[in-house]
Write the structure tokens for this entry.
Amino acid sequence: QVDLVESGGGSVQAGGSLTLSCAASGNIDLDYCMGWFRQAPGKEREAVANIAVGGTTRYAASVEGRFTISKDATTNTLYLRMDSLQPEDTAIYYCAQDPADRFWCTVTVGSYKSWGQGTQVTVSS
């Protein structure tokens, strides 16, 4: 089984920073596409960033230049560093794995089959 557990969420003021972590367990490596998604109240879940096994990253236009996705193979941990946070970033953030892709990562929510429980990020103005 693939278990993903997010942590690091919290409440910050606009302009602040947070770093989210996603711990993978169940004897899995980060050998497939990993992604961060978010869902705000009343909105559809959307892709934020993803990272391929080779380290190639992609970002949503809304977060590009502010967020950084990375992974640590030693600890099987996925990270999302979020800088210059804005109220529009308020959402529940999820990490997920796409078990079918490794070197090119889609932003399609349905392609990701393993999901964490989510961690709340709240940005006040």
Q: What stands out?
A: The CA atoms of residues 96 and 115 lie 4 Å apart. The mean pLDDT is 94. The chain has no helices and eleven strands. The first strand starts at residue 3 and ends at 7.
